[in-house]
Amino acid sequence: xxxxxxxxxxxxxxxxxxxxxxxxxxxxxxxxxxxxxxxxxxxxxxxxxxxxxxxxxxxxxxxxxxxxxxxxxxxxxxxxxxxxxxxxxxxxxxxxxxxxxxxxxxxxxxxxxxxxxxxxxxxxxxxxxxxxxxxxxxxxxxxxxxxxxxxxxxxxxxxxxxxxxxxxxxxxxxxxxxxxxxxxxxxxxxxxxxxxxxxxxxxxxxxxxxxxxxxxxxxxxxxxxxxxxxxxxxxxxxxxxxxxxxxxxxxxxxxxxxxxxxxxxxxxxxxxxxxxxxxxxxxxxxxxxxxxxxxxxxxxxxxxxxxxxxxxxxxxxxxxxxxxxxxxxxxxxxxxxxxxxxxxxxxxxxxxxxxxxxxxxxxxxxxxxxxxxxxxxxxxxxxxxxxxxxxxxxxxxxxxxxxxxxxxxxxxxxxxxxxxxxxxxxxxxxxxxxxxxxxxxxxxxxxxxxxxxxxxxxxxxxxxxxxxxxxxxxxxxxxxxxxxxxxxxxxxxxxxxxxxxxxxxxxxxxxxxxxxxxxx
Length: 520
Prior knowledge:
- With 520 residues, the chain is mainly alpha-helical.
- The chain has helices at residues 25-28, 37-40, 45-57, 68-74, 87-90, 105-125, 134-159, 177-194, 215-228, 232-243, 299-303, 317-323, 336-340, 356-359, 364-367, 399-412, 416-429, 435-438, 444-458, 465-471, 478-487, 505-510, and strands spanning 5-6, 29-30, 80-81, 268-272, 314-315, 341-342, 350-351, 354-355, 371-372, 394-398.
- Among the domains are: 1-177 and 473-520, Serine Threonine Protein Phosphatase 5, Tetratricopeptide repeat; 299-390, no CATH class.
- InterPro entries: SusD-like_N, SusD_RagB_dom, TPR-like_helical_dom_sf.
């Protein structure tokens, strides 16, 4: 990966752009003669905070959590499908992204490296600033390490062999998957050592601000990175450290994790902040968030039920059926079903102030279809999602995930009895029976399958399912692949290597020597 390092600094900093290979690093370091900010920025603690805020800004654009990243994380799973008329979206879940059309996946790739570049600006310049409050300086550096780790986590996880920029330079060569994960782990370690538990009791410019990275978030992502690289002992110990912080707990109402009424709650380890009150009227798609933007999160309209949004993403029938497999202790269907999807429920179901059966009654296909409910503004306050102004925060990592990942690590390190303990609170919340009674003395292999089931239902449509499928090696297991095909016809077009996205063609063109991922 190659960048032209234009030292142009505003609130949101400069963005790296690709160059050809026939120039030297010295040629690439240029000053914008029309901007005096280069001489005055990176002088104060306020500058430093603005710099790290710019790194957060890359979480809000179309390439990341405004729209593209949830799509890329969700669509390959067997919990959802897409019949979008937009070809670039339609092919994601069919493992057929086009190397010559980088729409969606290429935007994500670009924005991850925009965020990494901005974090590197902070990590390069902030150490040279004199702070009256050294704790504030540490928090800013910790957030920069966290954000660089998070963007790189996505890049390695989705694109496999990618550049690993850890300093400001002109050329960033492609690295191996292992090298990428090693840097992700180091960044989250550094972040955990510098970040506070919360910003409630700190003093300084960031005091009391919600949405900033914390020690718990850094540790949770560190544990997740260990888990994704199959380092189960380190993952186990790191998740236990998160649990032992004693600051997280499951909220009583599962649906509170997907609405705008109980954001930044006790279950949220890290979430991206969106607000319906932000912006103006412009429907801009790329670049840094601007004051004139009229669009916030586009997840709601993209995933929205037919006639209320674009319906580009829908739950699968396999997901619906799996929710029926086990009743609660009171004999009811798992309540997470109704929090996850809209369907023609016996007795009625409301969406956007309308009764499902009545609204879709004139169209048998819609009446018998399934639509997404998570992250929808569907409880009656708004008529539909067509204003592009969803203010629902994106919960990237919940405490329920920490508990189930910890249970998985216990099982993989031969403490299967211990795994029961940490699955139990997740099931208790929704009234499911105690596994130690209904399925006692499971083997390690049986528990592994059970955890797969638990994660499928708890995190449906949250961008976790395909990550699990890939890291568990199910695509390389002939029996599991046949099973996935029986649940989701989109797996019929899977071919080896397509579990990762292609390296965008622009990256291939501008960085000679870059090797395309296998299968493309």
